[in-house]
Design a protein that fits this description.
Number of strands: 5
Strand order of the largest sheet: 1-2-3-4-5
Structural class: alpha/beta
Low-confidence stretches: none
Length: 170
Amino acid sequence: EHQKNMLKSVKKMVQEFKDEPYVLIWLLGNENVYGLGCNADKNPESFFKFANKAALLIKSLDPQKRPVAIASGDVLYLDVFAKNCPDMDIFGANSYRGRYGFLDFWDEVKRVADKPAMITEYGTSSYAKGYSQEESESYQAQYHKDCWTDVLCNSSGFGAGNALGSFVFE
């Protein structure tokens, strides 16, 4: 019943926004695998099978055929995603791995899921206890620069070659 209601909500969303020219992608979920707002961590296979159903529904309703992605929690259950989401176009993940980028994220997604990838959320605060505002903001700027460099170094023709981009959260 819950899945039926969620698919009804997805259908309503697509019908409402499918003709909007500024919609570039459909993005499902938000760190569901962590189990904070749902129970996807209890049965990730069931969750990803459901996410794939939602992707198929979106594709059946969107005349523009825009890509469908998921916003997972880093690479937790990436193997389960790969097995159960063949119709998901992009693997997206919220990832906070540190100042030097996303480490082996791109290679792991390519190896396990063989999908284009994007970071759907990353960042660091511009305020840090014990540091001046200037020091904190300087660190934040360097953090974002290093993470963006990592995305560029793994985009088409470089590194893993599957990085599509990223979204800054903080």
